[in-house]
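ugh ok fine here u go
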Amino acid sequence: MILLTGATGFIGERVLQKLSENNLSVRCLVRKPVNFGKQGVSHIIGDVLDYDSLARATEGINTVYYFIHMMGKQDEQERFDVLDRRAITNMVKACKVNGVKRIIHLTGMSNPEEKLSHHLASRKEVEEIIKNSGIDYTIFRASVIIGREGAAFELLDTAVRKFPVIPVMDWQNTKVQPVYIGDVIRYLVECLDKQETINKCYDIGCPDVFTYKELMQEYAKELGLKRIFVPVPGSWRRLSAYVLGKLAPVDANVAYWLIESLHNNMLAEPNDLDRIFGFEPLSFNESIRKIKEGGQCYMP
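structure:
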């Protein structure tokens, strides 16, 4: 049986759909009762910050999907770092007690030569705790995930659609390698049956590399919008988060931490995923067209 955390979130909800389609037995860790309405899918009440509930949740579990990451208020970065550490430590302990064989985790890309943002540093620490746990793992690292309801994509979408003149701050030349949500879900689900991915970490991204300014320019082009980009000195994180938090379906605190991370380059290291999985990730432009075809891209 599989234990799925974050089952109602952006990634977890989509992974659950695929696992259910594959007729796999899934137990979802939730804070309050949820009727998922899918055969073979059950839920258990618990919280990653409560070890006892995790000990109950992991009984009889073979594989855990760990899709938990805290993002607190803008003045509480140390607090959410502490909560992230406590949550994954609880999960690892519960997995060991109950003989869980494998943890599958999605995190963010990071460059070891750069000073990481609070958000990415906390994610990196969670990754290291999993890798050093003694439990088998498969870890995927992504940068901007292109898909409706994804916080990073929603911020990109809002900035491009809402502002005819777009200020670009000191993150404009940071490089990023986006990836389509459908490809992310394929990696996460199909790795279950691929033994060669055990105890491996993979960066996942499309073939295209953009600066953040180029990413916005390309997205505007795909939407048929003419936009003017104006360089603005500084980062303006709080103001940007406040404005985007009002306009985008993203909490302002989440926006703040994501904007802070715009200073970190997120480029994929070479790997053999194409050979293992038998497909290549969609290009950025193909990703946007997929979203538009599915009626998930708001038109201007």
